[in-house]
Specification:
Helix content: 10-25%
Number of strands: 9
Strand content: 25-35%
Largest sheet: 6 strands, mixed
Distance between the termini: 30 Å
Radius of gyration: 17 Å
Bound molecules: guanosine-5'-monophosphate, magnesium ion
Structural class: alpha/beta
Number of helices: 5
Strand order of the largest sheet: 4-3-2-5-6-7
């Protein structure tokens, strides 16, 4: 099974113009991030991690198994993207959000791009009176943000390109790629084709 380790399925891999981070590189960086988080929250009592799904599911699992602190895991689901573009309108998919009053909250998301999503998530969580809210992202794009929001923890700073894999999708595909790569422009331009085509469907974070 070892050959699965860093071998993205060939058909999906062929849709990448290049790989930015393979699985060992991601896990190495998550080890550093986890150590930093573990140090920072060592004396904070119970930590509440709020994962923004679906994009953060791999990041959530691989990061938290490296954080040996007492913590609980909550999640919420938002959408703001259609294909490879942010619409700027952030929709919460659940009516009841996790109860975080008085808690130390660490929000996990896959990527900080325009800032709309994490700005809206943080604002909604702050309404409930948590003890603290910090933001942790796997990826942070180098660009001017539409909303004033910064990550307290970031795995990798990347150029302003559309990336997929390791949880991040294009029209719900590629989330299961074990690496992070740049999606080819012609793949974005033509949408998905072939088996499992979902062209025209929306994007859920
Ligand atoms: P923002 O609201 O900061 O513009 O974007 C947040 C969400 O948009 C992310 O959680 C992610 O779901 C999606 N997103 C932004 N940039 C990318 C990207 O390069 N690739 C993918 N697959 N999703 C992205
Ligand atoms: Mg997301």
């Amino acid at each position: 099974m070892d050959d699965l380790q860093c071998q993205p399925p060939a058909t999906m891999h062929a849709d990448l113009s290049r790989v930015l981070y393979d699985e060992p590189a991601i896990l190495r960086r998550l080890g550093e991030l986890a150590a930093q988080i573990s140090r920072d929250y060592a004396d904070a009592g119970e930590l509440t991690v709020v994962a923004v799904l679906n994009g953060s599911f791999m990041f959530l699992a691989d990061l938290l198994r490296r954080v040996p602190l007492p913590l609980r895991v909550e999640s919420l689901s938002v959408s703001s993207y259609a294909g490879d573009r942010s619409t700027g309108v952030v929709t919460f998919k659940q009516t009841v959000l996790p109860d975080i009053a008085g808690r130390h909250v660490l929000v996990l998301d896959d990527i900080l791009d325009s800032g709309h999503t994490l700005h809206a998530v943080r604002a909604r969580l702050l309404e409930q009176g948590p003890a603290s809210v910090r933001l942790c992202v796997l990826l942070r794009k180098r660009r001017v943000r539409a909303q004033a929001v910064e990550a307290d923890y970031a795995g990798f700073d990347i150029a302003d390109e559309f990336v997929v894999g390791y949880g991040l999708d294009y029209l719900e595909r590629y989330r299961n790629l074990p690496c992070i790569g740049v999606l080819r422009a012609d793949v974005i331009a033509r949408g998905l084709t072939g088996a499992g085509q979902v062209a025209g469907s929306g994007h859920a974070s």
